[in-house]
Amino acid sequence: MTKLRRFYSVPYYIWLLLFVIAPVLLIIYQSFFDMNGNFSLSNYETYLGSGKYLMMTLNSVWYAFLITLFTLVISYPTAYFLTKLQHKDLWLLLIILPTWINLLLKAYAFIGIFGVHGGINNFLGLFGIAPKQILFTDFSFLVVATYIELPFMILPIFNALEEINPSLVFASRDLGANSLETFRRVIFPLSLNGVKSGVQAVFIPSLSLFMLTRLIGGNRVITLGTAIEQHFLVTQNWGMGSTIGVILIIAMFIVMSLTGEKRKGGVKK
């Protein structure tokens, strides 16, 4: 049985090697070459010594934090409410359905909604309010990014809440705890692993957003993802683009280490 499992795991390891490990190693390798193809640390010196790149990094972290925060504030009550419904699987499917639609299509849909002649301004016009510039603002970028990331936060929280043993909640009530205390002392601590997984699933991709920054933010929102796109597609400075990619990989591991499940004595805490 063990040999059979190893045999079936071979395609997985091949996939992991070709499409995960190899691209990461290639990015790291490319980051040590300048535009002339010379081996150099100049890309890292430029990144660490440039206020522009450091400010871009802070912007990326700040916007990713806001997107994650807004997503979490909306997702936790939604996931908690879903666990109380009779047809929870159906409602969960409706939440997942938007993820099947291409991101570019959703972005263009919001361009129509937030545009000067879009749905929101047409609605405001019914009350005599002049058209507002909603598109190409921080507000529109955060709204669209939060909407797109919602399912990826709701699902892990929902699964964590579903796995809570109901007897623990009943025991809390029997011991005299009210609903708020039960939630604070029992439900929320037991669902923290779902929250951490949701934060990983939202924060890490939000660090490198670039399509939404262009289409919805109108390049007013500048992130590391935007810089990578510019270096690879416009300036052709692949070394600098790879360097920023390495920084994002490091940030990803930092976030995963901070939000991952800690083990103590071989047992998950």
- The ordered string of helix (H) and strand (E) elements is HHHHHHHHHHHHHEE
Q: Can you tell me the residue ranges where pLDDT is under 50 for at least 5 consecutive residues?
A: 264-269
Number of domains: 1
- What is the approximate shape? globular
Q: Which secondary-structure class do the elements indicate?
A: mainly alpha
How can the largest sheet be summarized? 2 strands, antiparallel
Q: How many β strands by DSSP?
A: 2
Estimate the strand proportion: under 5%
Strand order of the largest sheet: 1-2
According to CATH, what is the class? Answer: Mainly Alpha
Helicity range: over 70%
Radius of gyration: 23 Å
Query: Alpha-carbon distance between the termini?
Result: 31 Å
**CATH architectural designation:** Orthogonal Bundle
Query: What is the third-level CATH name, the topology?
Result: MetI-like fold
Q: What is the fourth-level CATH superfamily?
A: MetI-like
Q: Short summary of the structure?
A:
The protein is 73% helix and 1% strand. With 269 residues, it is mainly α.
Q: How does this model look, in words?
A:
This protein is mainly alpha-helical and 269 residues long. It has one domain: MetI-like fold. 73% of the residues lie in helices and 1% in strands. The protein has a two-stranded antiparallel sheet with strand order 1-2. A hairpin with a 2-residue loop joins strand 1 and strand 2. The longest helix has 32 residues. The C terminus is likely disordered.
Tell me the layout of helices and strands:
Blueprint (H helix, E strand, L loop, with lengths): L1 H29 L11 H8 L1 H32 L5 H9 L6 H12 L4 H7 L12 H25 L3 H9 L4 H12 L1 H16 L3 H5 L8 H10 L4 H22 L3 E2 L2 E2 L1
Helix pairs in contact: 1-13, 2-3, 3-7, 3-10, 7-10, 8-9, 10-13, 12-13
Membrane topology: Multi-pass membrane protein
Keywords: Cell membrane, Membrane, Transmembrane, Transmembrane helix, Transport
Family: Belongs to the binding-protein-dependent transport system permease family. CysTW subfamily.
